Automatic annotation (TrEMBL):
CDD domains reported in the protein's UniProt record: GST_C_Ure2p_like, GST_N_Ure2p_like
SUPFAM superfamilies in UniProt: GST C-terminal domain-like, Thioredoxin-like
Domain of life: Bacteria
PANTHER family according to UniProt: DISULFIDE-BOND OXIDOREDUCTASE YFCG, GLUTATHIONE S-TRANSFERASE-RELATED
Domain GST N-terminal residues, every copy: 18-105
Pfam families: GST_C, GST_N
Protein family: Belongs to the GST superfamily.
Organism per entry: Rhodanobacter terrae
Name of the protein in question: Glutathione S-transferase N-terminal domain-containing protein
InterPro entries in UniProt: Glutathione-S-Trfase_C-like, Glutathione-S-Trfase_C_sf, Glutathione_S-Trfase, Glutathione_S-Trfase_N, GST_C, Thioredoxin-like_sf
Domain GST C-terminal: 108-234
Coiled-coil segments: none
Length: 234
C-alpha cells in the first residue's frame, strides 16, 4: 500500500484509498479541469474538497503541496519511477495526466505542441480575463462607480471568444477532430462565464456560434458533466 505520510496535506485530508490519485480541489473553472480529465481518462482517484471560501487552500497542510495556495493539486502515489509525486497548477496536471493515461494529448510532436499552446492560451488569457469579468460583473467590483475596468475586461473577453471562435471554424474541437486537453482546459471557463458569472449578454456570447456549438458538444459528454460537480460542497 502506498505511503503518503511524507505529504502533510494527507494529515488534513486523509486518504481512504491511498493507492489512487489524490485530488485536492473544488469545482471552480480551474478545479474542474482536473476532475474532468480524471473522469475522462478513467484513472482511479479520490477527491478531497478544499473549501476556498474558508481559506482552506491557505492552510499549512495545503501550502505544503502548493505554496501558491491555489486549487487544484494532486498526489499520484504511482508517479515516475513508482514514487509518489505531488503536483500543482491545472495546466501541468492536465499534461501529466495526459501522459500517464496516453489520452487527449497526441504523441505526434507537432500536434502535441500545438495542443499545449492552446492550453497555455487558456491559462494565460481566457482564465485571467474571464475571471476579471466575473469580479467586475457579479462580485465586489460591480459596486465600483468607475465602469472602465469592466468595459476593458468585457472587450478583451469578446476578443478572446473571437479568437476561439475562429479556431473552431470547421472543427468540432480546438484541435479539429480530436478532443484534447485544450478543450478540457477551456470548457469550464467558458461555461462559467455565461452561467455563474452571468456575463452571457455583456460579452455577446451567442454571436460566437462556433463557440456555442463547441460548448454544447463538450457539455454533452458524460465525463464533463460528472467532472463539473467534483468535488462540490454538500
Amino acid at each position: 500500500m502506498p505511503d503518503l505520510s511524507s505529504f502533510p496535506i494527507a494529515t488534513r485530508w486523509p486518504a481512504q484509498h491511498p493507492d489512487r490519485i489524490q485530488l485536492y480541489s473544488l469545482n471552480t473553472p480551474n478545479g474542474v479541469k482536473a476532475s474532468i480529465m480524471l473522469e475522462e481518462t478513467g484513472l482511479a482517484y479520490e477527491p478531497h474538497l478544499v473549501d476556498i471560501m474558508k481559506n482552506e487552500s491557505h492552510t499549512p497542510e495545503f501550502l505544503s503541496l502548493n505554496p501558491n495556495g491555489k486549487i487544484p493539486a494532486i498526489i499520484d502515489p504511482d508517479g515516475p519511477g513508482g514514487q509518489p509525486l505531488g503536483l500543482f497548477e491545472s495546466g501541468a496536471i492536465l499534461m501529466y495526466l495526459a501522459d500517464k493515461s496516453g489520452k487527449f494529448l497526441s504523441a505526434d510532436p507537432a500536434q502535441r505542441w500545438e495542443t499545449i499552446q492552446w492550453v497555455f492560451f487558456q491559462m494565460a488569457s481566457i482564465g485571467p480575463m474571464f475571471g476579471q469579468v466575473g469580479f467586475f460583473n457579479k462580485f465586489a467590483g460591480k459596486e465600483y462607480a468607475d465602469r472602465r475596468p469592466l468595459e476593458r475586461y468585457v472587450a478583451e473577453s469578446k476578443r478572446l471568444l473571437g479568437v476561439l471562435d475562429t479556431r473552431l471554424d470547421g472543427g468540432d474541437w480546438i484541435m479539429g477532430d480530436d478532443y484534447s486537453i485544450a478543450d478540457i482546459a477551456t470548457l469550464g471557463w467558458v461555461n462559467n462565464l455565461i452561467t455563474f458569472y452571468e456575463a452571457r449578454d455583456i460579452v455577446a456570447y451567442d454571436s460566437f456560434r462556433n463557440v456555442v456549438a463547441w460548448l454544447e458538444r463538450g457539455l454533452a459528454r458524460p465525463a464533463v458533466q460528472r467532472g463539473l460537480k467534483i468535488p462540490g460542497r454538500d
